[in-house]
Amino acid sequence: MEIKVVNHSQFELPNYATPHSAGMDLRANTSETITIKPLQRVLIPTGLHIELPQGYEAQIRPRSGLAIKHGIGLVNSPGTIDSDYRGEIKIIVVNLSNENFSLNPGERVAQMVIAKHEKATLIECSTLESTERGEGGFGSTGK
Predict the structure, then answer these.
(1) N or C: which terminus of the chain has fewer CB atoms within 10 Å of its end residue's CB?
(2) CATH 2.102.10.10: does it fit domain 4-116?
(3) Measured CA distances, 40 to 7, 79, 94, 102 (Å)
C-alpha cells in the first residue's frame, strides 16, 4: 500500500524499523528540547500530513520504551487519524512519572500503525442474544 505524505518536518519520513514491525516511529518536529513536567500534557507536532485511502485509519500509539523507562504515554491511545483528515499529525504526550522528561528534537515519540476498518450499521432492538458471560465485565472472567 502506498500513502501520500507531505513532510513539513526537518526529518526523514517514518519507516518500519524491522521487516516485521507493525508501526512506524513518529518523531518530534521541534526546534528545541521540550521539558514535560510530571502529569503535564503536551501537544507535539510531527510536521507530517497524510492521505489515507478510504476504509483505513492511522492509529497513533505510545512507544513501549518511553513508557517503561520514563513513564511517557499518550493521552488518547490509540489516537485515530481518519482518511479524510489532511491536517498535521500531532501527538498528545503525557508524563506519568514523578520526574521531568526532556523530549529532544527528532526524538521518536510515538508509533503509527495503518489499519483497515469496517463501517457498521447500528440496528436498535429491545433484546440481545444471551451468552455465558452475559453482562459480566471488568475481571468477571477471572485471572
Answers:
(1) C
(2) no
(3) 28, 18, 6, 12
Are 99 and 43 within 8 A, CB to CB? Answer: no
| pLDDT, tens digit, 9 for 90 and up, residues 91-101 | 999 999 999 99
pLDDT in the model for residue 17: 92
For residues 33 and 114, what is the distance between their CA atoms, to the nearest angstrom? 29
Question: In the chain, how long is the greatest CA-to-CA distance?
Answer: 57
Domains in the chain: boundaries: 4-116
Sign of the Cα pseudo-torsion (69, 70, 71, 76, in order): negative
